[in-house]
Amino acid sequence: MKSFKISRLSLVALLVAVLCSSPMPARAVDISGVVSNNGGASFYIGNSSSGQTLTISNGGVLTNVHSGYIGNVGGNNSVLVTGSNSIWNNSAYLFLGLWAGGNTLTIANGGTVFNTVGYIGFVGSHSNSVLVADAGSVWSNSGNLIVGNGGFGNALTIADGGTVFNTDGSIGDQAGANNNAVLVTGTGSVWSNGGNLSVGYYGAGNTLTISNGGTVFNAVSYIGDQAGANNNAVLVTGSNSVWSNSGDLEVGYIGSGNALTIADGGTVFSSVGAIGVSTTASHNSVLVTGTGSVWNNSGGLYVGNSGSGNTLTITNGGTVFNANGNIGYSASASNNSVLVTGTGSVWSNGGNLYVGYAGSGNTLTISNGGTVFNA
Known about the structure:
Elements: E1 2-6, H1 11-18, E2 27-31, E3 34-37, E4 43-45, E5 53-57, E6 61-64, E7 68-70, E8 78-82, E9 87-90, E10 94-96, E11 104-108, E12 112-115, E13 118-122, E14 129-133, E15 138-141, E16 145-149, E17 155-159, E18 163-166, E19 169-171, E20 181-185, E21 190-193, E22 197-199, E23 207-211, E24 215-218, E25 221-223, E26 233-237, E27 242-245, E28 249-251, E29 259-263, E30 267-270, E31 273-275, E32 285-289, E33 294-297, E34 301-303, E35 311-315, E36 319-322, E37 325-327, E38 337-341, E39 346-349, E40 353-355, E41 363-367, E42 371-373
């Protein structure tokens, strides 16, 4: 593979290396100095080509005044930003896989990437991925971050102390944006959403996993937001793994078959919790299992706000806290259920508990040493 060493070169030289719009053989570009793309053009790694690579290391800085593209049409292109003070600064959007698949972005060892809105897997593109790893490694989106904007099978991994910032976050944003995934794992690994977070806005089968001490912050969250957003799932597992919702947490706002699992000491915070919000939101579920596993709602909890066949299971020492508890809140909320089973399993209602406030066929089962408290 032909290699170029670039240090404080002109825009023209950099364009020759990586920005040609016509197909060209695989090239490796290593930026170790300061390179500024001030010509007004966007920056492409793999515009119509495949196998292009860009490495920003040893304090290298790349600045472009418009959007950055990794795999505009070509697939299997890659960017590595590694080392303290190594920076890729995009003044506009960053697209990873606009029309192509298999493209990658790795931010490691203290590297930083800036942009406005970030997209992983745009239109029908698939199998694109971003890895943000190691303490001090940051992907900072001043706008939204979308993992699967019509694309499928795309992924974001935040590991070993990496951090990602954005306003609203979405996994599986459009119809057909299915089976996209975000993993936040390891102590100090953080996904900080300044706004709301949707796991399956219109897409199906999308996942968020928080494990081994990872943390996710956001305002309101939705698992299965709009029509067709079915079978999406969130797993919060392991001691010190935290999903912190400053607003409501809604499992199945309109979608069906969506799930939240809190296991092995994981913790979820929210204000109001709801499972099966609208009349079409059926067969959504929450499982809280294992000693130290907690869902802590500062407000009320609704199992079947208007939907039917939704469930909450608390088992193996899991705990759920809330103010008033409701199973089957509205007239359309039928056949919803809560099971509290096993020694040490607790549902603690700080206020009143209603089993069928207005709905029919709703049930509460307490078995095998489970405990329910209410006023």
